[in-house]
């Protein structure tokens, strides 16, 4: 076979990428195409004959462009979505280029070492125990599945049950205590794990969505048997933090496992100013966070940590005669991950951390909070939450959903909507590393102008 032409398609991708990235500051933030337009531009039957690779890349970029949401833009404030820093993005390109199967050390030694190193840096940044095991997963969703599988193993092992061998048929029932304002990915993880959402015991929350310690005490008092407590650092609407230190004390006194959903809130641990919000987080049993949100690593990139490496491995580990398993000190990622073959996700996380350094991570987090506070000042009188992190909830009464749609259509910025305590609200999340004061002011001006109907 002729040697493939790498240069043409990769040059095209490089040119398309740099045009997109440098255009972000002025690009309309939302998608500009309808479903019908995108289907017309991208659809049709698969041609019989192939095409030149560079041509394919050029046509793909051209046809997809109107349907690309500029979520890496500094004025994208929807959901909790970060962009991609230059180092992380470039390392991600190399990840695809090297195309390592990062399940086994033997198939990608450098990928395994990079995950080990970056996992250690993150443990250190978050103040987690040095012996905690780490896994690089697709996102917080699969991090929950991994951590709660380890929790399921451990709480049932203590009850004399081997869940990996015997499954859940006939097993002692596990109770899962979680705040009423938990993220929906907790419920979904319980479905995947066969624990079921009926195992959930909702715990009282306060006006910011924080689990109350009294509520947890009361919920635990009615239980005996295996229990898992799911705490949250960073409520997806308000940004509020559960009192994690007290939760660990109360839960551990009752023999329960504590899992922490810190998809974006765990990053508060990297900031001297915010660290008090997560005091005691090191006493939990497992932790979930994302790199693709606040660290601004490209999708998909989540992280799981577990204070009980034996439970982590018991839940995830796999052996087969044809595989080459690590014999010594090497790390096989498939022993810590729900995937088998997998992308070498550690490279982009490693590059992101290396480029920012400890102080760069801290200022990234602090800046997001400062900018959220700046936006909240502009929305004065309409802010519905205590702004403790990077999340601001704004209420414009019953007209809020319509205003959210108009803001999205106008294109200067992009915000999403939610319901908070039964009332419609606009969610504003500052998660992008390029967002600056001017972006906040332009977004605030636009929102206030559209709200005033002018
Ligand atoms: C975003 C988020 C999740 C889900 O994360 P994914 O990375 O999308 O799987 C879970 N919990 C919280 C608090 C979140 O903000």
Automatic annotation (TrEMBL):
<dbReference type="GO" id="GO:0030170">
    <property type="term" value="F:pyridoxal phosphate binding"/>
</dbReference>
<dbReference type="InterPro" id="IPR010977">
    <property type="entry name" value="Aromatic_deC"/>
</dbReference>
<dbReference type="InterPro" id="IPR015422">
    <property type="entry name" value="PyrdxlP-dep_Trfase_small"/>
</dbReference>
<protein>
    <submittedName>
        <fullName>Aspartate aminotransferase family protein</fullName>
    </submittedName>
</protein>
<keyword id="KW-0456">Lyase</keyword>
<dbReference type="InterPro" id="IPR015424">
    <property type="entry name" value="PyrdxlP-dep_Trfase"/>
</dbReference>
<dbReference type="GO" id="GO:0004058">
    <property type="term" value="F:aromatic-L-amino-acid decarboxylase activity"/>
</dbReference>
<keyword id="KW-0210">Decarboxylase</keyword>
<dbReference type="Pfam" id="PF00282">
    <property type="entry name" value="Pyridoxal_deC"/>
</dbReference>
<keyword id="KW-0032">Aminotransferase</keyword>
<comment type="similarity">
    <text>Belongs to the group II decarboxylase family.</text>
</comment>
<keyword id="KW-0808">Transferase</keyword>
<keyword id="KW-0663">Pyridoxal phosphate</keyword>
<dbReference type="InterPro" id="IPR015421">
    <property type="entry name" value="PyrdxlP-dep_Trfase_major"/>
</dbReference>
<feature type="modified residue" description="N6-(pyridoxal phosphate)lysine">
    <location>
        <position position="293"/>
    </location>
</feature>
<dbReference type="InterPro" id="IPR002129">
    <property type="entry name" value="PyrdxlP-dep_de-COase"/>
</dbReference>
<dbReference type="GO" id="GO:0019752">
    <property type="term" value="P:carboxylic acid metabolic process"/>
</dbReference>
<dbReference type="GO" id="GO:0008483">
    <property type="term" value="F:transaminase activity"/>
</dbReference>
């Amino acid at each position: 076979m002729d040697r493939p032409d790498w240069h043409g398609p990769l040059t095209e991708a490089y040119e398309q990428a740099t045009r997109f990235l440098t255009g972000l500051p002025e690009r309309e933030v939302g998608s500009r195409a309808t479903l019908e337009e995108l289907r017309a531009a991208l659809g049709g039957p698969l041609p019989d004959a192939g095409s030149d690779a560079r041509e394919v890349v050029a046509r793909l970029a051209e046809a997809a462009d109107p349907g690309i949401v500029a979520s890496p833009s500094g004025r994208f404030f929807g959901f909790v979505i970060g962009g991609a820093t230059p180092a992380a993005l470039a390392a991600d390109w190399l990840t695809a280029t090297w195309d390592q199967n990062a399940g086994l050390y033997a198939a990608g030694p450098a990928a395994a070492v990079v995950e080990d190193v970056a996992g250690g840096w993150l443990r250190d940044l978050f103040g987690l125990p040095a012996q905690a095991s780490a896994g690089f997963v697709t996102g917080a969703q699969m991090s929950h599945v991994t951590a709660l599988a380890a929790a399921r193993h451990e709480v049932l092992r203590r009850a004399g049950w081997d869940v990996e061998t015997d499954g859940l048929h006939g097993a002692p029932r596990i109770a899962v205590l979680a705040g009423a304002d938990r993220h929906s990915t907790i419920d979904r993880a319980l479905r995947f794990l066969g624990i079921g959402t009926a195992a959930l015991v909702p715990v009282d929350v306060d006006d910011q969505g924080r689990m109350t310690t009294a509520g947890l005490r009361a919920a635990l008092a009615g239980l005996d048997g295996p229990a898992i407590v799911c705490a949250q650092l960073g409520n997806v609407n308000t940004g509020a933090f559960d009192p994690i230190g007290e939760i660990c004390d109360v839960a551990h006194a009752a023999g329960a496992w504590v899992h922490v959903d810190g998809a974006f809130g765990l990053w508060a641990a990297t900031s001297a100013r915010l660290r008090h919000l997560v005091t005691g987080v090191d006493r939990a049993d497992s932790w979930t966070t994302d790199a693709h949100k606040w660290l601004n690593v490209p999708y998909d990139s989540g992280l799981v940590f577990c204070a009980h490496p034996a439970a982590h491995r018991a839940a995830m580990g796999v052996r087969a005669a044809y595989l080459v398993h690590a014999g010594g000190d090497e790390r096989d990622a498939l022993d810590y991950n729900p995937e088998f073959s997998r992308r070498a996700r550690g490279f982009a996380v490693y590059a992101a951390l290396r480029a920012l350094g400890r102080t760069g991570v801290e200022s990234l987090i602090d800046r997001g909070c400062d900018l959220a506070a700046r936006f909240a000042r502009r929305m004065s009188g309409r802010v519905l939450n205590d702004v403790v992190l990077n999340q601001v909830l704004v209420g414009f009464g019953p007209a809020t959903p319509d205003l959210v749609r108009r803001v999205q259509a106008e294109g200067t910025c992009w915000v999403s909507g939610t319901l908070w305590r039964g009332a419609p609200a606009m969610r504003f999340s500052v998660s992008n590393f390029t967002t600056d004061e001017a972006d906040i002011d332009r977004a605030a001006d636009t929102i206030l102008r559209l709200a005033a109907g002018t």
